[in-house]
Structure formats: C-alpha cells, structure tokens
C-alpha cells in the first residue's frame, strides 16, 4: 500500500464550474494532504504545465485530472501533448469526463491515459467516483518520485 507523506499536487483541468467545485470539495475533505490547482481549458493547462504567463511559478503536478471536452484545446490534444513530452509523460493522467463513447475511451488509452472514468449524473455517485480516484491514486498507487519543476 502506498504511503504519501508529501503534499500531493493535483492539476484539475475542468471547464464545468459545478463539477470543479464538487471535485475540489471532495478532495479537500481527503485524509491525504493535497493541493488542487484548477484550470478551465486546455490552453491554460498547457501554460500551467510549461510554466508560462500567469502560471510561471506553477508547481509540477503529481497527477492530472482531465476532462476531455474543453474549450480552446480539448483534452485529447492536451493528453497527446503531455504524453509526447519527456518531462511530462510520467505524470499520471486520469480522464474524468461525461463521454462514454467507445471512440473517446479507445483514443484516450491510445494517447496513454492512465485511466478513464465517466462522470456519473447522480451527485452521490459522482462523489463516490472522486473518492475512488483518491483511494486508488493516493492510497494504493506509488506515484512517480517528486521532481523539480
């Protein structure tokens, strides 16, 4: 079982305000120390990961929670960018999206997503999915060692 004494830095890439709030609240109530950074589109996520513009001091995330249907640059494009970059490719990327389309699922795994989760419509089920992400990725999985930005 993984033990994470360090602060886990999570990049949440989510354009839905209500989904973002729900995810943040659920993870803030976690027994694991975490710091959530929210960006609302794929371009801003790239700026965060490459420390550009207003994100010049952004930390390297330990994990990315990525929606697929984003403005400016969609999640598939961002995922391809992350997994093609030698400095970013080891960051686990969990897809958390409304799409249950088989083509989206297949394409995400072809682009090396670490997991694919469909957002439930039911509020309680949505919270349970976020808690399952927390349990699996923070309690069971050994994340890559912390790297400097």
Which percent bin holds the helix content?
25-40%
Radius of gyration: 14 Å
Query: Helical segment tally?
Result: 5
Can you tell me the overall shape?
globular
How many distinct folded domains?
Answer: 1
Q: What is the straight-line distance between the termini? A: 27 Å
Q: Indicate the CATH class.
A: Alpha Beta
Q: Please list the strands of the largest sheet in the order they lie side by side.
A: 2-1-3-4-5
CATH homology group: Response regulator
- Number of E strands: 5
Low-confidence stretches: none
Oligomeric state as shown: single chain
The largest β sheet comes out as: 5 strands, parallel
CATH topology: Rossmann fold
Mean residue pLDDT: 87
Could you give the order of the helices and strands?
A: EHEHEHEHEH
Q: What percentage of amino acids are in beta strands?
A: 15-25%
Query: Based on the structure given, which CATH architecture is correct?
Result: 3-Layer(aba) Sandwich
Q: Which structural class do the helices and strands define?
A: alpha/beta
Summary, kept brief:
This protein is of the alpha/beta class. The protein has helices spanning 17-28, 42-49, 75-84, 102-110, 123-140; strands at 8-13, 34-39, 63-66, 93-97, 115-118. The protein has one domain: Rossmann fold (3-Layer(aba) Sandwich).
């Amino acid at each position: 079982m993984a033990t994470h004494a360090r602060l886990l830095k999570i990049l949440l890439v989510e354009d839905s305000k209500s989904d973002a709030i729900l995810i943040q609240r659920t993870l803030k109530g976690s027994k694991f120390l975490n710091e959530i950074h929210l960006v609302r589109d794929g371009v801003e996520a790239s700026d965060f990961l490459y420390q550009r513009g207003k994100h010049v001091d952004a930390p390297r995330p330990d994990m990315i929670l990525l929606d697929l249907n984003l403005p400016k640059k969609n999640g598939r494009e961002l995922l391809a960018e992350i997994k093609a970059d030698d400095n970013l490719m080891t960051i686990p990327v969990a897809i958390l999206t409304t799409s249950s389309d088989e083509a989206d699922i297949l394409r995400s795994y072809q682009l090396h997503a670490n997991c694919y989760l469909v957002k439930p419509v039911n509020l309680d089920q949505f919270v349970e999915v976020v808690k399952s992400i927390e349990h699996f990725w923070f309690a069971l999985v050994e994340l890559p060692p912390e790297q400097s930005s």
